[in-house]
Amino acid sequence: MFSVYRFISKMLNFPDWCAERIAKWKKDIKLINLHKVAIIGSNFCCREYNEMEGAKCEIYNSNSKESVRIGNYVKINGILCCNKNGKIEIGNYTVIRDGAFISADRQVKIGNYCFISSDVLIYDNNGHPILPELRRIQLEKLHKEPIDNYEAENGPIVIQDDVWIGTRSIILKEVTIGVGSIVAAGAVVTRDVPSFSIVAGNPAKVVKHIKA
User: Fold this and answer.
1) Pairing between strand 205-209 and 197-200?
2) CATH number, position 93
3) What is the rounded CA–CA span in Å between residue 210 and residue 195?
4) Above 60 in pLDDT, residue 88?
5) Could you give the CA distance from residue 19 to residue 16 in angstroms, rounded to a whole number?
6) Residue 10's pLDDT is what?
């Protein structure tokens, strides 16, 4: 009787088991494809207690494979978008959570041991030209081919080691965030952030210094 009960239980759980296996296979295939478009270090998106870590990771690279470099023990569930002339570099043990989006026309460099929270936006470019006549040209081209942000102003972003960027923050072009700093949730960073400081607001300003 017990064996019959176990058999019935397995049959009832079979659809869920199939769904889990299919999701795992899709993740494995995705990770294989990511290695084709970026230089990725060891133990990428590996986490023993969460097999689906990295299932949401996307890397769009319009430059060479070498233009996107990811260190060891990195976890990414966000989106990296490296445009024609862009570069993205991510250090060891950095985590990029769900919904985060990184767009690089020139360079976005993220250090070691950084937390990039959910829904963070990091843009080293304006996305579109400032002059309206140039935006018209860009929009007309969009009907014929994909447009690239290189047509807009851009400048490098550097996020140094041990930085924590809070949920729904926005990091804009030509910004350096110093070692050990924290960007509060919802902040808009338009200027450099000193090391070991906390910034908040729009535009982000220093609200506290961290004693190392």
Assistant:
1) antiparallel
2) 2.160.10.10
3) 9
4) yes
5) 5
6) 55
What is the predicted pLDDT for the residue at 135? 87
Sequential DSSP letters for 40-106? E-TTTT--TT-TTTTTT-EEEESS-GGGEEE-TT-EE-SEEEE-TT--EEE-TT-EE-TT-EEEESS
In 144-166, which positions are buried (b, 16+ CB within 10 angstroms) versus exposed (e)? Answer: eeebbbebbebebbbbbbbbbbb
Whether the CB-CB separation of 179 and 160 falls below 8 Å is answered with yes
Q: Per-residue pLDDT averaged across 112-129, rounded? A: 95
Domain count, the chain: 1
Distance CA 101, CA 122 (A): 6
Q: Are 74 and 93 in contact (CB under 8 A)?
A: yes
- Which domain range does residue 24 map to? 2-209
Q: Whole-prediction pTM value?
A: 0.85
| Nearest 10 degrees: Cα torsion 24, 72, 180, 109 | -90
Distance CA 188, CA 129 (A): 20
C-alpha to C-alpha distance for 109 and 104, rounded to whole angstroms:
9
Tokens 């509060």 — which residue?
A: 184
- Is the Cα torsion angle 40, 155, 166, 208 positive or negative in sign? positive
**Omega prior to 203 cis, within 30 of 0:** yes
